[in-house]
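agent> call fold_tool(seq_1)
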Amino acid sequence: MARNKVVKLIGRLTHVFTVNKTPWIWRKYLMDDYEEMFSISYEYKDVNLRKNHILFPVLAGLILCYILGKYKVIIVSALESLVLLLDVGPKMHGVLLQVEKVCAMLLEKKLIYNKYDEVGIVLFGTAETNNELTKEVGGYENIVVLRSIKVVDGDLVDVLDQIPRGTVPVLDAIIVGMDMLIKKYGPTNKGKKRLCLITNALSCLRDPYEGTKEDQVSTIAQQMTEQAIKLECVVVRGKLSGDADKNVMDENDQLLELFTKRTWAKTLYVESATSLLRALRTRSIAPVTIFRGDLEVSSALKIKVDYEYRSINDPETVVPPEQRIKGYRYGPEVVPVSSDAWEAVKFKPEKSVKLLGFTDAKNILRQYYMKDVNIFIAEPGKREAVTAISALARAMKEMNKVAIVRCVWRQGQSGVVIGVLTPNVSVKENIPDSLYFNVLPFIEDLREFQFPSFKNLPTFQPTEEQQAAADNLVMMLDLAPPAKEENLKPDLTPNPVLERFYHFLELKAKDPDAAVPLLDEALKKITEPDAELLSQNKSVIDEFRRCFELKENSTKKKSTRSVKEKPSGSDDEKDAAEDHNVGKTLTNTDDNTAGKAEISDEKPSSALANNSSVSVEKIGNITSVQDFEAMLSRRDSPDWITKAIKGMRSKILELLEDSFGGSNYDKAVECLVALRKGCVLEQEPKQFNDYLQYLCKFCKEHGLNDFHELLDLKGMTLITKSEAVDSDVADEAARSFLVTKEPKVE
C-alpha cells in the first residue's frame, strides 16, 4: 500500500496509547452534556508505534491493522496554541522577575480552566542560540526555544521559575514563534494560534538582508494572516533610564503599530508590575451580536446592518412557531395563553432601530445609563453602510450631539427600549467609525432619593482653610492626575484575591502542606496605600489632620422606653433588658403588674435615636418631637416625609383643641418649631408656610389669642427663599409676617 496514505477518523477515543514513549490520554469532552467530536489525522512518519498499547474502538483497530507503517497523531480542535516570546535582554533584567510571575500565573490558570491548551516558550536576547530556523537557514541568533509547543503541565510552570538573563539586545523572535506554530500544526489546524510578545521594545532591530524593516513587517503580517495567527504585544515601559534611545523606541513602536494595521494584532503598553499582571489574559471573549438589522434614520432611509428556538431534550431540533405556546406563571401554576388570545392583547412593535431625534450631549448624563454599553457597527462587507455610519458619527461629533433611538430587538417583542447613540470616531485607519449604545430609563425606572442638604446645616459647613485642605488631599489621591498616566486602570488591574488564590492553588498542588503565601508586592499596590505617594505628600496629610480634629464619639446608652410600649415577654423587651445592663433594673413586682417595668430615673432623651430596632410609624403623645425626627430620618420610602409632616400638623391642632387654660401651648410651640426645622431640612417650605397661615386663621376663629401672643414672642415666621430655594417668600415678606393679637372680648 502507499506509505503516505492519510486516514481521518472521526470518533470518541477514550484509551491510552504511546507515541515515542509519550502517553497520550484521550478523554470525553463534555459540552452542555453532549460529547464533542474531534477530527484525528494519522500520517506516516518515522515514529515507533507500540501496538501493544493500542486499544481503539473496533473500526479504528481494523483500519490501523490494514494500514502498515508508522504514524504521527495530529489533533484538530478548537483549543488554543500559545507561544510566549520573552525578551530577556539587558534592558529587561529589572522586570524579568515580574514577567516570570505573570507567565506562571497565566499557566496556572490554564491548568485550571484550559488544561488541554498547548504552550511553547521562546527567549530572545540570550547569549546562546538554539532554534530550528538557525539550523535550517542560518541567522536568528541569540534566540532559544526554552520549550517546544506541548500541552500545558506543572513542569512548564517550574521552567518559568528562573528565566536565564540574556546579554544581547535583539527583537527577532516573532518569526521563530510563527515558524514553530506553522511547523507544529500547518494549515490543517483549526484551533486558535496566538503569539504573545513581552518586551520593552528598547533594543535596536537588525536590518534585514533584503528590503526595509517595514517590508519585513508587512511580509510577516501577511504570513500571519494566512496562517490565522494572532499577535499580542505587551510593552513594559516603566521609568525610562537615561541610556534609553528615544529614536530606537519610536521606530520599534511604529513597527509594532504597523502589525496592528496589517494583521490581527494589538499592542498594550504597561508601566508597572501591577498592570503587567492583568496584561496577559487566559482567554479572550468574542463579541456577541444582539441585533442584526437596519438603522432607520427616517422612513425613506435605512442603513443595512435572526433567532430560533430549540428543544431542551433535543437541541438539534428547531421547534417551529406553530408548536410553541406562551405560558405565564400564576402562583405555582403556569397558565397557557393561546396564540389567538395573545395576538388580541399584545403590543406588536416591529423589529427595528428607529431614530427619534438628536439632542445636545450635555442633556444625557452618565448616571442615566441603565445597562452595559453596546456598539453599533455597519454591516460587515458593505462599504456604503460603513460610509453612512461614519458620516453620521462624525457629524454628531462635530455638532456635539447624541441620537435618541427606539429599539425593538426581536419581531413582536413587547418591551421597547429607548437608548442613546454616542459617536465613536476611530483614530485608526483600519478601524471604522461606530456608535456607542446605552439604554435610557423610562419615568418608572427613576427613583428619587431625598436627602437633606448640608447647606442648611451651618455647623457642618467647612471653613475656607478646611475646604482647601480637603481639596488638596483629594487631588493628591487622584488616580488620573493631569499630564500623567492613569494608575490602576480597571482593564489592567487584576483581582488580588483571585490572583493570590491561583498562586496558592499551584503551591498546594505541589505540596499539600504548603502554607498560604504572603501577598505579592505587585498586588500590595492594589490593596494598600502607595507608601511613596504618602511620603511625598506628608505635608498635605498633616495639614488635613490639623484642620479636622478627630474626637472620640462616646457610646450612648440604649434607651428602654420602648419596653413600656411592648407586652411582657416580647422580643423587644428581652433585647432591651439584655442590652441595658448599666445600673438600671427591670423587675416585675407581682402577677398583677406583669408587663410593667420599674426603670431608674435616667433621662430618656432621644430615645428613638438610641434604639434603632424600633421603627416609628406615627407621632406619639409623649415624645412627639423625637417621633417626628425619627420619621423624617427614615429612608426606606419617600412617603415618610409627607407622612411625618401631616402627622405633626395634626398633632399641633390636637394639642390646641385639647388644651385647658393654655396647658398645651408650650408643647404645641415646641412641635411647631420642630416642624419648621424639618421642613427646612427636607426642602418642603410650601407645606409649612401654608400650614402656618392656616394656623393663624384657626387661632383667630377659635379665639386662641394667648397662643397668638406666644407665637409672636417666639418670633415664628414663614420659611424664606434664603432658607429653602423652593420657597416663594422673600425675606422682606417674612419679616412683615406678624401674628396679630386679637382684642379680647369683654
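agent> call fold_tool(seq_2)
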Amino acid sequence: MNNNFDYIQLYLRNIYNMVQRDQRSIETYKQYKKYLTVFKKWEDINELISLMNKELQNRQISNNSKLTKRNIFKAFLSWYTKWIIFIWIITVNLYIFVRKKVDVKLYQRRC
C-alpha cells in the first residue's frame, strides 16, 4: 500500500463485494463511501482518529448522522487494525519461512 487512503479504498471494495453477494445494501455502501473518502491524507492511526473526532464534533449535523458516522468509523477502525495485524503476521511468517529455507540450503551446500 502506497498511502493510507489505499486502505480505505480496499475496505470500500470489500463492502462493495458484500453488496454484490447481497450481504449489504447499495445504500450502505454509498454511506460508507461518502463518510470515509473524506479522509484522504493521514500518517498514522492516531491522526486518523483525531480527524474522525473532529468530524464527529461538527455541530451542524444531527445526532442520528453522528451515530451513523461513529458506527462507520468504528467498523473501519476495527477492520484496519485487524488487517494491519494480519499483514504483520504474514510478513513475519514469510520471513521465518524464507529464512529457514535459506538456512537449509546453506547447510546442504556445506555437507
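agent> summarizing second result for user.
The CA atoms of residues 1 and 101 lie 27 Å apart. The radius of gyration is 20 Å.
agent> awaiting next instruction.
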